[in-house]
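Lecture notes, unit on protein representations.

Consider one protein chain, 328 amino acids long.
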Amino acid sequence: MNNIPSITQNQPSQISSAVKNTTEYIGDTVESVGKKYADMRTNVSSSLSDFSDKTAAGADASKEFLTSNTIVAKVAFVLLILLLFLFFLYLGINIMQFLINPSNNPYLVKGMVSGNAGITILQDPTQKKSITLLRSNNQTTGLEFTWSVWIYISDLNNSPKMLQNIFNKGNLGYKDDGIANTNGPGLYILPGASNSSSNTAGLRVVMDVNSIEIYSHIDISNVPIKKWINVIIRMKNTMMDIYINGVISNRYILPSVPKQNYYDIQICQNGGFSGLLSNLRYYDKALNVIQINNIVFWGPNLNASTTVSTTRGGFEYLSSTWYTGMFN
């Protein structure tokens, strides 16, 4: 019982010591946290400062890079503009040539016309309705051109001497026999009296040459009448081939170089012939066999020709009469 009072007497001093120790511990802890926070702020600030310095350095480097490449960029841009200009200039020139220049393979007559129509196709390019033919471009093998025409002969001329005009490239002057003064070339129907049968006709192709003979000719016999036939005159150097319905009918070697001229094209002139004509076309080269047979395959254009001054070709539509034989 005597020990109890002594414990009670020491209790206040022990509590005071514990509180003091706790206060010191909390103070040390708060101070430590404050130092760590301060260190963290310092580290973050330092990191941000370093990043800003690097960013500024990068921006300066990019600016220097752009400045150093300004001349190259300008030169590249100018070259691009120049290339685009040249491209559109070339495109524009080609479009203008297509619209203005004559076709290499123009139709002189597209569609069907009467055999006595009496048509003149002008060659003067200043005239509104002219269809100017380009002369042969003189290939390595020499002069070349091709004429193609569809004809339907319904009747023959009973004259023993007069040839009937299908077409000729030349003037309107004609001799007593019906052949034009100028032919480059000319295609005619022989007189009816010279044919062996009333169901066939004869054709004559005339070509002017640079020689004393003035012109040369080649005759084709046994051409059926009252049927559509295709006649192709193919010239290559001095060799003239005549195709009837895609089959070569005759070949003639001219004594001299063919003589080209700048005269108009005369179609069914000087009285023409009894029948019809369709799709008279000129090519500035010698067609091959495949191209010739392709013309025959499509047949004549039996639509009435609305104009004879078109220089642009199009699709050839085959009439039903080509199959049904309306004119046979």
